[in-house]
Amino acid sequence: MRTRDRLRIAIQKSGRLSGPSRQLLAGAGLRFGDDGDQLFQPGRDLPVDLLLVRDDDIPGLIAEGVADLGVVGRNVLEEQALERMDGIGPGPFRSLRELGFGRCRLSLAVPADWDWPGPSRLQGLRIATSYPRLLERWLRERGIVARAVKLSGSVEIAPRLGTADAICDLVSTGATLAANRLREVERVLSSQAVLAAPARPFGDARDGLAAMLLRRLAATSRERV
Length: 225
Ligand code: PRT
Ligand code: ZN
Known about the structure:
By secondary structure, the protein is of the alpha/beta class. It has seven helices and eleven strands. The chain has helices at 18-27, 58-63, 74-84, 132-141, 158-161, 175-179, 205-224; strands at residues 7-12, 40-41, 48-53, 69-73, 93-98, 104-111, 126-129, 147-150, 166-171, 182-191, 193-198. A six-stranded mixed β-sheet has the order 2-3-1-4-11-5. Strand 7, helix 4 and strand 8 form a beta-alpha-beta unit. The N and C termini lie far apart (40 Å). Bound molecules: phosphoribosyl ATP and zinc ion (ZN). Phosphoribosyl ATP (PRT) is lined by residues 12, 15-17, 54-56, 73, 75-76, 102, 104, 169-176, 191.
């Protein structure tokens, strides 16, 4: 593998995580030059550069070595780790630190007028989700055979459209579920933004830079207490 002496951190370009991710890095004393580039911003004082991308692309960029670290929801990181795993051996990513923002949960929800005797109610049904691997693992652990129907957006309208019976989607306030007459019944994953890294150390100057960043993040979170 090619050695590098600069650390590249990927964050979401625009969305729920982008503001808090920028604040986090600014709080750790990192400043980036904005030379009009929409994707790449070089570090001003330290050899730490920024990549601005879609959140879903972050695990793949880390796996391919294009980015070294990333700020991404545990929901996205774990789903893509399962996608890349062969069932044996360790996963491709490590989560270095929980970041305390982007909190949400991946939950199962059913039409509000259903009885809920428990997870077995899902047996044989179709469940719409953007997170089929996390859902399938949860179902498998409970011995339930159901079909995950992968949708990339508007998951909450699937039961009304008749494309699925239930959904498994991210929830924060619960307002979206209520507006779609759905009831949250089971939690599949608790999530928040994490600092993600490859499973193995870099073996060059990037390890020291990542350790410095972690020390600074620990110091700023202590100051906030
Ligand atoms: O363009 P890009 O792909 O980068 O962005 P995106 O649209 O895929 O992501 P974005 O910005 O919506 O979310 C980024 C990350 O924020 C997610 O991967 C989660 O880790 C985290 N997060 C936290 C959430 C929510 N809270 C959340 N509430 N992501 C999505 N939602 C959605 C949810 O899917 C549902 O549609 O908000 C709706 C539910 O919200 P409530 O408050 O009505 O329950
Ligand atoms: Zn996304």
